[in-house]
């Protein structure tokens, strides 16, 4: 089947700076697809390019089989966008925001009012319909932004860091709603740097860095392929930890600040050793996507 | 390509116009007070007060002269300020344009909608002044209603030219250059308060290349009940400034937002 989003060899240069360097991305229909990457990896630039808002320097982009940017208008009519920064209209109430936004899609009248009622229920804002935007909490604003993105019944929903800065209750509620949307057969494309979010939500994902795709697969596949099954995070005086861990042979060890990360297939021997050194504290956990992410994109800070 | 500059109106520019109209309607109370109160104050203070000294030196009462000049200048100010401060607020701090551009709307649609709205506001504001002027006996006859479409056109012109400044503005502070160095001189030199025939010839020549005087020369005879002259020239100047302003603004906003 034809992919919903098909990006080939996309490059984007801002003056001297090359933000995208031949990025390839194919998003199949009906899945929740994640784009993971450190700050400045080119995630938002990719999203803007596929909506036709900021054309690439070279490369080919098709969405729904339509060429971008030439057919940007037609493509955006079938997309819903949840931006990174809330840009709700502060001059309006909750319901007016949806009504005004519907008009940008050429949607007016009774069917829109019906759709708005439905969407306010979906994001649990029915009782705040007439509230001014300034009185909403961060979580409510984000839920309203999601409702706004659904006003045109989009086939493709694009979310740029949808749960950044939200409390756990709201994050879980939003995850449930996003899964419901996928189960209705819509395609979701989201960027995030929350690995737990990607792990729970994404059927498939790519890890991007420096404007190119490093790896692609389901969260489970990527974990199995790149890191050992178990992780021990060992904390304590670095010299002590180094001395204790020096004798360990069946683990890959990385030192970062005051923590040693030990990746291993079988943690039993390591656990026995650590039991004898109570001056070191440790956390034993299964490997996760964050380990894959750090392995592939490195440990140095990005801004 | 010229096609990249042509806005769609239905379901596009008009959606932006309707958005702004809805905001305006929410604040209609204060708008009406300002729209009627301010011209009343000016016309009474200057029309009567100053008019006493000037009276009889022209082919119309000074109150009529001042009211017609004020009508034209207010179209420039109303549309200009909305296109500067209103549009900048939506484009930059509120990020409303980012939300609009994620819909099928494109930059020409949005800017055309903004300009149509600025012109509508200029016409509404003008209607308020016309009402006050009529109540004070400064309006000759019903023909003065033709002023409203003229003010709408002048609103389009001055909104489009102001948008060029907004498109490049880094902050609200940038606007004081335009208001102080362009709008205020235009208002003082374009025959709003006194006939431009009293200016030195070179200055008269310069002023005729600028748009406001053409709005004044269309509005004044309509208010005073005198015959109109050079209608085509006046309309052409206003339209030309409007089209050039719009095209440059679209180009600049595109470079600003499409990166």
What CATH architecture of the largest domain in chain A would you give?
3-Layer(aba) Sandwich
Q: If you compute it from the alpha carbons, what radius of gyration of chain A comes out, rounded to the nearest whole angstrom?
A: 22 Å
Number of strands of chain A: 14
Total DSSP helices of chain A: 11
Number of domains of chain A: 2
Anisotropy-based shape of chain A? globular
Major beta sheet, strand line-up of chain A: 6-7-8-3-9-10
Name the CATH superfamily assignment of the largest domain in chain A.
P-loop containing nucleotide triphosphate hydrolases
The major pleated sheet of chain B works out as: none
> What is the average of the pLDDT values of chain A?
92
Helix residue percentage of chain B = over 70%
Strand runs of chain B, count: 0
Distance between the termini of chain A: 38 Å
Describe the 3D structure:
The complex is a heterodimer of chains A (303) and B (259). Chain A contains eleven helices and 14 strands. Chain A is of the alpha/beta class and 303 residues long. Chain A has two domains: 5-224, Rossmann fold, CATH 3.40.50; 228-286, 2-Layer Sandwich (Alpha-Beta Plaits). Chain A has a six-stranded mixed beta sheet, sandwiched between helices. A four-stranded antiparallel beta sheet of chain A has the order 2-1-4-5. In chain A, strands 12-13-11-14 form a four-stranded antiparallel beta sheet, with helices on one face. Chain A is globular and about 75 Å long. Chain B is mainly alpha-helical and 259 residues long. Chain B has helices spanning 9-26, 28-54, 62-91, 96-101, 107-135, 147-168, 175-189, 201-208, 212-224, 231-257. The interface between A and B is medium-sized, with 29 and 24 residues.
Structure, briefly:
The complex is a heterodimer of chains A (303) and B (259). By secondary structure, chain A is α/β, with parallel strands linked by helices. Chain A contains 11 helices and 14 strands.
């Amino acid at each position: 089947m034809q992919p919903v989003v098909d990006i080939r060899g996309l490059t984007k240069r801002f003056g001297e700076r090359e933000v995208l360097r031949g990025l390839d991305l194919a998003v199949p229909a009906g899945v929740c697809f994640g784009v993971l990457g450190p700050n400045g990896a080119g995630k938002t630039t990719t999203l803007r390019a596929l909506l036709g808002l900021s054309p690439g320097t070279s490369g080919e982009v098709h969405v729904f089989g339509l060429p971008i940017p030439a057919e940007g208008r037609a493509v955006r009519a079938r997309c819903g966008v949840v931006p990174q920064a809330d840009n709700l209209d502060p001059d309006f109430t909750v319901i007016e925001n949806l009504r005004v936004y519907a008009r940008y899609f050429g949607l007016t009248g009774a069917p829109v009012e019906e759709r708005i009622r439905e969407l306010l229920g979906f994001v649990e804002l029915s009782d705040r319909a007439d509230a001014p935007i300034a009185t909403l909490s961060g979580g409510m604003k984000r839920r309203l932004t999601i409702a706004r993105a659904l006003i045109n019944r989009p086939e493709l929903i694009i979310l740029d860091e949808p749960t950044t800065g939200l409390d756990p209750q709201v994050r879980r509620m939003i995850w449930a709603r996003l899964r419901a949307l996928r189960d209705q057969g819509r395609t979701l494309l989201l960027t995030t740097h929350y690995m737990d979010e990607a792990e729970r939500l994404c059927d498939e994902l790519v890890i991007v860095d420096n404007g190119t795709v490093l790896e692609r697969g389901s969260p489970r596949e990527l974990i199995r392929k790149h890191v050992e099954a178990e992780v021990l995070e060992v904390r304590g005086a670095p010299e002590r930890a180094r001395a204790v861990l020096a004798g360990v042979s069946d683990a890959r060890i990385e030192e970062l600040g005051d923590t040693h990360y030990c990746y291993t297939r079988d943690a039993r021997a390591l656990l026995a050793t650590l039991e004898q050194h109570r001056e070191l504290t440790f956390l034993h956990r299964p490997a996760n996507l964050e380990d894959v992410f750090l392995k592939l994109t490195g440990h140095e800070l990005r801004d | 390509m010229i096609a990249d500059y042509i806005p769609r109106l239905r379901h596009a520019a008009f959606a932006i116009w309707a958005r702004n109209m809805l905001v305006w309607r929410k604040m209609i109370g204060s708008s009406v007070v300002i729209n009627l109160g301010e011209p009343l104050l000016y016309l009474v203070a200057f029309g009567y007060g100053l008019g006493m000294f000037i009276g009889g030196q022209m082919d119309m009462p000074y109150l009529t002269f001042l009211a017609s000049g004020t009508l034209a200048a207010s179209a420039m100010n109303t549309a200009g300020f909305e296109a500067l401060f209103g549009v900048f607020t939506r484009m930059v701090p509120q990020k409303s344009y980012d939300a609009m551009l994620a819909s099928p709307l494109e930059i020409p649609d949005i800017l055309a909608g903004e300009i149509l709205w600025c012109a509508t506001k200029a016409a509404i504001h003008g209607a308020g002044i016309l009402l006050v002027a009529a109540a004070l006996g400064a309006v000759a006859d019903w023909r003065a209603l033709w002023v409203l479409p003229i003010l709408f056109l002048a609103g389009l012109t001055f909104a489009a030219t102001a948008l060029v400044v907004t498109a490049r503005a880094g902050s609200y502070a940038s606007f004081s250059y335009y208001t102080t160095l362009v709008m205020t001189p235009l208002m003082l030199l374009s025959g709003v308060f006194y006939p431009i025939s009293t200016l030195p010839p070179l200055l008269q020549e310069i002023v005729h290349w600028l748009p406001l005087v053409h709005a004044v020369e269309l509005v004044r005879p309509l208010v005073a009940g005198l015959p109109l002259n050079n209608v085509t020239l006046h309309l052409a100047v206003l339209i030309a400034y409007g089209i050039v302003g719009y095209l440059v603004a679209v180009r600049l906003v595109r470079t600003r937002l499409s990166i």
